[in-house]
Write a structure and sequence with these properties.
Blueprint lengths: L8 E5 L10 E5 L4 H15 L5 E7 L10 E4 L10 E11 L4 E7 L1
Antiparallel strand pairs: 1-2, 3-6, 4-5, 5-6
Amino acid sequence: MRGGTLAARWLKRESLVPGEAPTLEVATLLTTAANGATEAARLQTLYGTDRDFYKVKLKTQPFTLELNDTVQITFARYNLTTGKKFRVICLIENAANNEIDLELWG
């Protein structure tokens, strides 16, 4: 902002459904209520749904995945029989063994 100072603003969006998670407050540098409402709605969509975390080790060609890539896991257990898409949030590659350790969220 020209000629002004940046001040931390707080976004607050309460769940409208009884029994859902408590209010999430996030420090931001947004300056208008409209931008704050848009970001609050985006965060509600992102965090308002149950997500799963998985750590998996794969035998595959290293250096083909990057952080934030989307992968689909299919497994006979853990409610993954039809497959589910996840985001890669951490990856450790071992080129000597053609293995990748992935941490997934989704």
